[in-house]
Write a structure and sequence with these properties.
heterodimer, A: about 325 residues, alpha/beta, Rossmann fold, nine-stranded mixed beta sheet, five-stranded parallel beta sheet, 9 helices, about 30% strand, elongated, B: about 260 residues, 2 domains, two-stranded antiparallel sheet, globular, binds flavin-adenine dinucleotide
């Protein structure tokens, strides 16, 4: 009997397809190291051939271009239906997708249609005698859980960038097959896409960022964050999602997967817990300083300098110390 | 429109928590707060706002242990019309079992709302699984909902990555998961809370329902591996401030101290 494959799923319209493909392929290889299986990809969309060719050359694995008739966008209901049909015929052991809004929704749908496990936001893969354990963040990143699938088919979404950089490139001729499918939209029709508002240029170019999290507690405390930023040359103020949700800072200052990706030389996280959705936007920063009153906060695992203090006591002292001479 | 909102009571992430002895869940390790998961509270707020605009009824449902009834009481206090408690011995981490338990309740509703994910397990799976189990269209990470005047469809704005959005049309009945942002969950009024104390909560015994085979399980919980040095500054708050300023000066982020 042939070994059930690991199947990477990509949407041909994904603007970050190359990075996503590498991340998924690296995750697939990590799984295959522990439990050998052939790795293949499917690139699905209205007109997937070019993207499928690129992916096959880039990853050096067999790729199927799955053409979906009358598809306006991967967000249309037909996408999941055609994909489920296709995957049912392939009978893969693993289906890997990016951990995006689209990927997480499809994961649930495919898991039901394929009687599979559904494991989202996977950050690492480990093997043991009994098989494979996938690691994912829980409780806002305070803990990582090892999850074992008990179903024979597993649909997995892979946290963006979690496996990047571990791919060994191979130079093989592109192996592209072709498949076609059609389905009704199943009550979900895509209407339009709205592009992101222009990113705040100030953040992506800032040399330093002082970021406010939910821990600031009240909007007036933003003044402390601003006062600290004013002491640091070239510093900008940013925020986590809850701070921007409340309108305490504009959306253009939100850092994270649904906001801006920043890489300043200095990032000071004030009252930020360290959820992976936030970390994804600032992990490229140079020096990371975290100030948080919870000694167990996840952010301390991702900071160079850890300050366990309450902001309302610490920030005024810090601002004052900025203006003082050293002994 | 009859709207069902799926809510989960969680041990808040900012609480003092530890891994259970069996390593399959997180348990209190000191001061803990139990509350409705943030995104579920947003989903309830979205439902209440829809009811204010177009009329109808809002029902809340939770699958969870006895203490989760508190979350339902709070939801009633916020203004939900009815509450259903599917009582489980413990918190159930398998989204298929949760979705299967909710599916019969969802059957009678036009629209099912849930949080985009729970703050504890962060799977984002119950909504899409429930939709697929019940053959309904699904939208996720919604930041705007616009029902058609005749109630037959719903226009949903979904949040994608880095600020991109997409607009989709769903036929009703449908399932939508709610992202935080546009919805600020209201505080229950005192009169609402008093009324909620007297309102009945319908309890369902899940053993009466067919329980699907579990498809996955948690085997071990640990703090995340550090990605950076995490050098902790010590001393009083003032000492730490002086050390930090020294460090930032050394690295050229602050001008040298004036003599
Ligand atoms: C699809 C999706 C996309 C998302 N995208 C993003 C994104 O782009 N960016 C983003 O940031 N989040 C995003 N999130 C949300 C993310 O999961 C977290 O909920 C969020 O990052 C938490 O923000 P926070 O750390 O500011 O707040 P919390 O998690 O509430 O943490 C507050 C912290 O402040 C500390 N604190 C409290 N009081 C004090 C005090 N007085 N002094 C010092 N410390 C204190 C607490 O100990 C805690 O650690 C997304 C979520 C989803 C589901």
């Amino acid at each position: 009997m042939s070994v059930a494959p690991i199947c990477i799923v990509l949407a041909s319209r994904d603007p970050c397809r190359a990075a996503a493909a590498e991340n998924l392929a690296a995750c697939a290889r990590a799984i295959a190291t522990h439990s050998p299986a052939p790795i293949q990809a499917v690139v699905a969309g209205a007109d997937p051939s070019a993207a499928a060719g690129e992916t096959a050359r880039h990853l050096g694995i067999p790729v199927t271009a799955l053409e979906i008739a009358d598809l306006s966008d991967p967000g249309d209901g037909a996408f999941g239906a055609v994909l489920a049909d296709f995957l049912n015929r392939k009978a893969p052991a693993w289906i890997l997708m990016e951990d995006t809004t689209l990927g997480r929704r499809l994961a649930g749908e495919l898991a039901v249609r394929l009687a599979a496990a559904c494991i989202t936001g996977v950050e690492a893969v480990e093997g043991d005698a009994a098989g494979i354990v996938l690691t994912r963040a829980v409780w806002g990143g305070k803990f990582r859980a090892g999850v074992r699938a008990t179903a024979a088919t597993r649909v997995v979404t892979v946290a963006s960038g979690a496996f990047a950089g571990r791919l060994e490139h191979t130079a093989v001729p592109a192996d592209v097959r072709w498949a076609q499918g059609r389905a009704a939209h199943g009550g979900r029709r895509h209407l339009e896409r709205i592009q992101a508002p222009e990113a705040d240029a100030g953040l992506s170019e800032a040399r330093a960022i002082v970021a406010a999290g939910n821990g600031i507690g009240e909007p007036d405390r933003l003044d402390l964050v601003r006062a600290l930023a004013a002491k640091i040359a070239g510093a900008q103020v940013a925020g986590s999602r809850p701070v921007c949700d409340r309108g305490w800072l504009p959306f253009s200052r939100q850092v994270g997967i649904t906001g801006a990706t920043v890489a300043p030389a200095l990032y000071i996280a004030c009252g930020i817990s360290g959820a992976s959705q936030h970390l994804a936007g600032m992990s490229g920063a140079g020096l990371v300083v975290a100030i948080n009153k919870d000694p167990k906060a996840a952010i301390f695992h991702h900071a160079d300098i850890a300050v366990v203090e309450a902001l309302e006591t610490f920030l005024p002292l810090l601002i004052e110390a900025c203006g003082q001479k050293e002994d | 429109m009859k709207i069902l909102v799926c809510i989960k009571q969680i041990l808040a992430p900012e609480s003092e928590l530890a891994s259970s002895a069996g390593g399959d869940t997180v348990v209190p390790a000191g001061v803990v707060e139990r509350r409705i998961s943030r995104y579920d509270a947003c989903a309830l707020e979205a439902a209440l706002q829809l009811r204010e605009r177009i009329g109808g009824q809002v029902q809340v449902v939770t699958v969870g242990p006895a203490e989760a009834a508190e979350a339902l009481r709070r939801a009633l206090g916020m203004g939900a019309d009815e509450a259903v408690h599917i009582v489980a011995a413990t918190d159930i981490p398998d989204p298929f079992i949760v979705a299967a338990a909710i599916a019969p309740v969802a059957g009678g509703c036009d629209l099912v709302l849930a949080g985009v994910m729970s703050e504890d397990l962060m799977q984002g799976a119950v909504g899409p699984i429930l939709a697929a189990l019940s053959g309904r269209p699904c939208a996720t990470a919604a930041v705007a909902l616009e029902p058609a005047p005749d109630g037959s469809a719903l226009r949903v704005e979904e949040e994608l990555e880095h600020g991109e959005r997409s607009i989709v049309a769903l036929t009703i009945p449908a399932v939508v998961t709610i992202q935080s942002g546009p919805w600020t969950p209201r505080y229950p009024s005192l009169s609402g809370l008093l009324k909620a104390r007297r309102q009945p909560i319908q309890t369902l015994d899940p053993t009466a329902l067919p329980v699907p085979e579990p498809r996955q399980r948690i085997e071990g919980l640990a703090p995340p591996p550090p990605t950076r040095g995490g050098r902790a500054l010590s001393g009083s708050a003032g000492d730490k401030a002086v050390q930090l300023v020294h460090l930032l000066r050394q690295q050229g982020f602050l001008p040298p101290g004036r003599p």
